[in-house]
Fold this protein.
Amino acid sequence: MKIYWIRAQAPRRVLALAKHLGIEADCIEIDLGAGGLKAPSYLALNPNGKAPTMVDGEVTLWESSAIMAYLCAKVGSDMWPVQQPADQIEILRWLSWNDNHWSRAVGPFYFEHVIKPSFHIGEPDPAELAAAVPGLHKVAPVLEGHLASRDFVACGRLTIADFQLASMACDWRQAEMPFDAYPNITRWLDRLMAIPAWAEPWPTKANASQMPALANA
Ligand SMILES: N[C@@H](CCC(=O)N[C@@H](CS)C(=O)NCC(=O)O)C(=O)O
């Protein structure tokens, strides 16, 4: 199995899950600077020109939530329970909520404070950050209330919904997300950091390779 990645949140959740489940994968870091995401040979795998992408034999898959479900199905993990439709529906609800509400609400803080310095693309923009505050306070109370009586987002156990939602906010301190009023969210985020693969998802030299062949291909 190959997993193509960059150091950003959608690949982070896939890499963390693969590591957590003990799945052996060749983790290929895409050289963003060399235009690796837009190389024709990469676009042939993922026409969105985004990461992550997974290739497992005949199966080529993009969209991190679909890849996570695939990985769980492959090894029979109940983090995406193939035999339990009611649990799947519950998890799917939160995956959708993440993509439509949560990631959009926290994304600007992550982009301005984490992505910009990581990829050297400018200073945080105070106007963008100020504009994002009301959106965050509209969405966060939903998750805060949900987590008041729960340790995990769905099904009373760790699922791919936790990885999907938490990936967007795990760097909440560095991203200066205004979470003072949301102790259940911050407790949940910090609790997940006790999972070794979640705390350190990035491939080591042992299972990581670069993709110079794709960079200009
Ligand atoms: N919905 C997609 C999001 C993919 C995505 O936007 N990936 C980002 C990293 S988090 C990316 O490749 N960004 C690079 C770019 O847009 O140039 C998924 O979950 O896989």
Notes: Residues 85-195 form a domain with the Glutathione S-transferase Yfyf (Class Pi); Chain A, domain 2 fold (CATH 1.20.1050.10). DSSP finds nine helices and five strands in the chain. The chain has a mean pLDDT of 94.
